[in-house]
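Saturday, quiet lab. Running sequence design on the structure tokens for the scaffold JK sent over.
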């Protein structure tokens, strides 16, 4: 008998290992609104539970960030920081430590927008 369950968007994302758009949106929300500790813990928990690599998360976060209307200085800071983090990840750096860098980059970007 053929497999009866339908193939939906979630099944495709989960089988490919790419973060679900809803998870990326939740991560972006945490980066832009939560405390450092809450954002870090939320993103780490989601990544571990669903098996996302930080590199895959960063790719999707960058796609969303590029569509947001940040001031140029803030956008430059985010791009520069995330590029450095991606370089470190490609060189074998610890994902948990690099996630701290991601959260820190967004915390600093938020502080830049308040000034």
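Result came back. Writing it out in full:
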């Amino acid at each position: 008998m053929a497999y009866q369950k339908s193939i939906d968007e979630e099944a495709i994302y989960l089988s490919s290992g790419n973060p679900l758009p809803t998870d990326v949106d939740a991560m972006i929300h945490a980066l832009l609104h939560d405390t450092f500790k809450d954002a870090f813990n939320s993103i780490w928990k989601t990544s571990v539970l669903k098996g996302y690599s930080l590199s895959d998360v960063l790719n999707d976060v960058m796609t969303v960030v590029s569509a947001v209307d940040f001031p140029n200085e803030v956008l430059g800071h985010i791009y520069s920081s995330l590029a450095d983090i991606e370089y470190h990840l490609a060189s074998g750096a610890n994902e948990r430590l690099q996630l701290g860098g991601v959260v820190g980059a967004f915390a600093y970007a938020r502080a830049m927008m308040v000034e």
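Notes for JK: Residues 73 and 112 are 8 Å apart (CA to CA). The longest helix spans residues 95-114. Ask whether to fix the surface positions before the next round.
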